[in-house]
Amino acid sequence: MEKDIEEVLFTPAQLDEKITELGHQITKDYQGKDLLMIGVLKGANVFMSDLMRKIETSVKIDFMAVSSYGLSTQSSGVVRIIKDLDYSIEGKDVLVVEDIIDTGLTLHYLYDNLLSRKPSSLKICTLLDKPERRRVDIPVDYKGFDIPDEFIVGYGIDYAEQYRNLPYVAILKREVYEK
Ligand SMILES: O=P(O)(O)OC[C@H]1O[C@H](OP(=O)(O)OP(=O)(O)O)[C@H](O)[C@@H]1O
Ligand code: HPA
Ligand SMILES: [Mg+2]
């Protein structure tokens, strides 16, 4: 796996430091609220499990599984819901947790879908943001890092379902997917 990596962007220590900061901010902002974190599977699974442990106020979690990239490095533009939430979010303070926002198509679809279920509030937290590639506007409330327009893997994020278990965030070598 290491041989396929062009450059490590964020080490485990840098990720931990940033996620601790995000956790503190979310803890402050959600005091006395009914916080429900919704992790977007599969990519957000690692970030979600680290972030929730940095939050020191009561929190519930749920997950949705969606996919638009499949085995490719290009968004298909069609977001498929593979697993829906277990419970209603009506009246809840919902925080959507994403690993990466790229074109924005996934979150654009999810945001409207979740809003129609009448949460009390709806905010977005993403670890990584690739603003150069955005095709639709997304209101990001909590962000870890901006990243360049490169294909990223690691810390939950895949190429063709591989590399999710790397403990760091890295740029994948082009030769891996341009063959
Ligand atoms: O902003 P966008 O261009 O829509 O891209 C971002 C989305 O793409 C990835 O998911 P993917 O469809 O690869 O599913 P996965 O999380 O199971 O890897 C990633 O986890 C985000 O959910
Ligand atoms: O850079 C990326 N890497 C992996 N999956 C992704 N989904 C959107 N952007 C990316
Ligand atoms: Mg993916």
Overview in brief:
By secondary structure, the protein is an alpha/beta fold. It has helices at residues 12-29, 45-52, 105-115, 174-177, and strands at 5-10, 35-41, 59-67, 80-83, 93-101, 121-129, 142-146, 152-153, 169-172.
Written overview of the protein:
Helices cover 23% and strands 31% of the residues. The chain has 179 residues and is an alpha/beta fold. The protein has one domain (19-150): Rossmann fold (3-Layer(aba) Sandwich), CATH 3.40.50. Strands 4-3-2-5-6-7 form a six-stranded mixed beta sheet, with helices on both faces. Helix 3 links the parallel strand 5 and strand 6. Helix 1 (12-29) crosses helix 2. The chain is globular. The mean pLDDT is 96.
Helix count, per DSSP? 4
Helix content: 10-25%
Main sheet record: 6 strands, mixed
What structural category characterises the helix and strand content?
Answer: alpha/beta
Strand arrangement, largest sheet?
4-3-2-5-6-7
Q: Indicate the CATH architecture.
A: 3-Layer(aba) Sandwich
Secondary-structure element sequence?
EHEHEEEHEEEEH
- CATH class group: Alpha Beta
Number of strands: 9
Let me know the average pLDDT: 96
**Nearest-angstrom radius of gyration?**
16 Å
Bound ligands, named by name, code or SMILES: 1-O-pyrophosphono-5-O-phosphono-alpha-D-ribofuranose, hypoxanthine, magnesium ion
What form results from the Cα inertia axes? globular
**End-to-end C-alpha gap:** 17 Å
Taken together, the total number of domains comes to 1
Provide the low-confidence segments as ranges.
none
Beta content comes to 25-35%
Family: Belongs to the purine/pyrimidine phosphoribosyltransferase family.
EC number: 2.4.2.8
Subcellular location: Cytoplasm
Cofactor: Mg(2+)
